[in-house]
Queue: 4 jobs
Job 1
Amino acid sequence: MEVYIGVALVLCSAFTHSVWNLFTKKSLHKATFLWSLHLIASIIFMPFFVKDLIHLNAGLKEWGFLLLSFMFQGVYFLMLSKAYQVGELSRIYPMMRGMAALLVPLFSLALYGEQLTGLGWLGLACIVGGLFAIGGLMNPSWREQSQLMKIALVVGLCTTGYTLTDKFVVTFMTPLGLLQLGNLAAFFILIPDVIKAKQVKAEWRLNWRTILIGAVLTPGSYLIFLFAMQLAPLAQIAPMREFSIVFGTVLGMIVLKEKQGISRIAMALLITCGMMLVGIFGTPV
């Protein structure tokens, strides 16, 4: 019974992740919206961060990893705001999520000497095929869409960077403290764009409800996943979280009325299947 609850929680985590990305896409100014919700989230999570710092036993190596995580997460949110300025949710969201899912195992192979099974390589092939298809490689004018692929690549590199970095950070900092590090990274790195845009009042006037909801959903999607990990095996539920790709594509088609919905859903399913192959069957037993 606990396993089924864990699966339900991880699907809820995937859905909430896609929802706050939908909110970002619908916002007036993407950087201002993300900055605003992380301002609220920073206030909420600051006590946990301060507690971690008080009890932190860190040397030069630990502080270096904290700085790396801060930079990776900050650039991630900066590029996320750029992505939703130029790309449709049903297209750019699976590209960004899929690019990270492709790069993490490849970097793990290089850095940690890990190996993939045949099914793992098949999963990577599905991810690559889905990425290029949804990115427009099959379209004669696909070169015009190269900006989307470049942004997705940078977002994927940032996600890979903080994923590999945070693998060490969580050995000396709590997950709640780590969430706050991401909140602060987004808050500070987005400040120049926010000042330049001068749309804080307009954003709050138009989207104050989704800002407040997003301030809960952004860290909340990960916290729900943490609860799920206590109820079901990580190897089983971690790949299921990537079902957010399908949720995001469907939301783009239904809520935002984006075109090519059926083909993009098919490619999102292909990428998701690839992720699940890598996550569940990719590592030798």
Job 2
Amino acid sequence: MSQFHLIAPSGYCINQDAAQRGVQRLLESGHRVTNQTIIPRRQQRFAGTETQRLADINDLVSLNGENTIVMAVRGGYGASRLLESIDWAGLAKRQQQDPLLICGHSDFTVIQLGLLALHNIITFSGPMLAGNVGAPELDAFTQEHFWRALQNPVFDVTWQGEGPQWACEGQLWGGNLAMLVSLIGTPWLPTIEDGILVLEDINEHPFRVERMLLQLYHAGILSRQSAIVLGSFSGAQPNDYDAGYSLDTMVDFIRSRLDIPVITGLAFGHEQQTVTLPLGAQAILTHDTSGSRLTISGHPHIKA
């Protein structure tokens, strides 16, 4: 069994019951759960003061334990405030030993991309404590894909995607679209050539998703990739004003600007069903009439 070490670098966990339910599930499964005292911590809309939330990250430098899974309690907002004060070099040195398996998504994406940009540290874009592990019903798909990613040196993710037939290989990266776009022009955005860029978001109207994708396009980031994979965009419903403009028509427009494929349909993001992806790992992407597949390797994993 593993040790789960909790961190809360972003927003206050408003659903305390869900977080406690997540802790209980982990304990009942035989895991250890450390740093539980951070769950109720609060300062305004944040999960504690800047000093407290920064310590959650920087204290990982001295965290001991093989097969330790570091899991964010929730997203929200707040991680961007910490970027200039994080001990990036210390975390990189720590990861050269027995790597921590760092997992989260949403607002946490900025820290994950910073680790990748500055020191090529691979982290997992996947479940968080309150929203996933502590959901009213623990999703079997999410649970299976989480352990598949963390326990295997090589694993596959398959889905029925939409897009042109394509095959490529490259570094897998991305995460939450809004957080990735917020890092353009900063030291914390990875510079990746011929990568496979996987994106998701929540509560963004299709035109806002388009605007962010166009910013990546105009910055030259999309055209430098080998493929774009779109996950879930929860809460992206059009309205009467859109008159037929939708997430699908937006994707068609983005495709018209690119010479590389945009593959859709991956269960990845702010949904109860989500895959876990190691950001920075190597991946082979294939898409044909039988469906879509990512074969992923080169990431840290639990040692037997």
Job 3
Amino acid sequence: MTALLPRAAHRTGGTPTVRRRRDDRRVAWLFIAPVLIGFAVFYLYPTVRGVWWSFTDYSLLGDPTFVGLENYTAVLQDKEFWNSMGVTLYYVIVNVTTQTVLALLLAALMHRLTRSVMLRTTLLLPWLVPNVTVGLVWLWLLDTNLGFVNHLITSMGFPAVGFFTNPALGIPTISIVNTWAFTGYTALLFYAGMLQIPADLYESASLDGAGEWRLFTRITLPLLRPVMALVLVVSLIGSFQIFDTVAITTKGGPVNATRVIYYYIYQQAFNFFHMGYAATMAIVLVVILGVLTAVQLRLLRASESQLA
């Protein structure tokens, strides 16, 4: 009987000991701690403080004074706020539509024709350029008086085009600039999703006589729904946060034709020192984005995929 006991039993007088499983939770918390501290300092604390400011009259020149819901009432009645929301929505529609269509086209071409690493790297380069640099480069290219593009236009005998100074062209021009900057990154997201689609489906459909358009509409798009939902949600939120390009190129002009909501919040906070009012607009914007995101995910059925 003694021979059947574990060696530990012989060393402890006949009673077997069970080695306790090492608890790694302390080590896990140690690794997570820097991220949690960064989140608390740079996200959680500013959010809580911003919510508090939204209920106060605060101008950076004195202590906040609690005013209750007065800021929220003023925002709902502020015509300039809703005008900025309308300008932002116009930009979101133009930007998301053009960016998504072009990204899908590029991803489909890469998936069906070439899978060159060099091409993918080239597509990603504009996304790596800082937004301020992108705005400056395109401002120099499209400036009415000194821009290279207008120099070419006038050299051919046509009048100069006010890409950033014409109220009708301001938002479309800014949309084109940001489409150029972000389409490559969006295309790579779509391309990664297309790589998850089994090649057998394309081969079977091709044997049945399906062309490229039918393959794209009947196989690629339906199976790409989760990735499509992710891209559209990220593009929607990112488009509502447009600020850098507007601040560099038009500064909200001409006649507020390009004054998007982020730039209006910036003006209220740092030009007019209405910090409490600016915080209120930011909170309202967060609520609107949350509602739009939830509706978008519901309509796109983001959790469903036809991939087995």
Job 4
Amino acid sequence: MTTEPSKWNVTDIPDQTGRTAVVTGANSGLGIVTVKALASAGAHVVLAVRDPKRGEAAAAGVRGSVEVRRLDLADLASVREFAAAWQGDLDLLVNNAGIMNIPESATKDGFETQFGTNHLGHFALTNLLLPHITDRVVTVSSGAHRMPGTPRIHLDNPNLTGEYAPMKAYSQSKLANLLFTLELQRRLADSGSSVRALAAHPGYAATNLQSHDGSALRRALMRVGNRFMAQDSQAGALPTLYAAVQDLPGASYVGPDGLGEMRGAPTLVGRSPAASDPATARRLWTLSEELTGVTFPHPAPITAA
């Protein structure tokens, strides 16, 4: 009689002693779970959060080496300040923060808030920190990049001016996360860098993200779904952690292995054709550079000692 091998979980995270990680949106939900897992494995983890007081409260419940730094992804000045203050090596950047299905609004720089926060803020942060990054960048996307209606990047109207809908904007931002990862990995490989860009999605995880939905009906439906269908935040963070510590190829995409990738153990998953288009990825990158004023820094190749 044979036994089925156990599924990957936090106990499989290798020793992270000596490694430094930054996790955005780290004071709640998937972010704080990611912080706790990495810190308990020995990493020094920086909680990059918009509200330092909430960040400190969250950090107080973490066993291990952590610190809190302010980062507002909806304000490029804050992103630049965070990156400019960084000194030394950074092994891992986890672009975890995100907002979902909110009413139409704009960031401090005038971008549609979901696109500006979920994509442009992380785009700028990653490129500004890239000279310090030694191992990998993991960006959290979503199964919403496949939402009905054929999500696409509105390159001629990324702010969705005159055509805004909360789910449309969210899907665009999550598709942008995957195209960003694809183009970042291409640029890293072409520059001779050993740094890898990967993406992950949590499936259907019950977090406070859904509570900010701009639709009362969707909020009600999500409360029911969170209670009876979703996996908890500990399980939802596993794909991110798997992408952060496993030896995976660049541009890999990790999600749950269950039906519809809604729940389950982390595994490599596919992405939509729209999220696999290198031409669109390059065009999005060019647009993102123009909008943020931040460009790819061409990191030096990392050679063996």
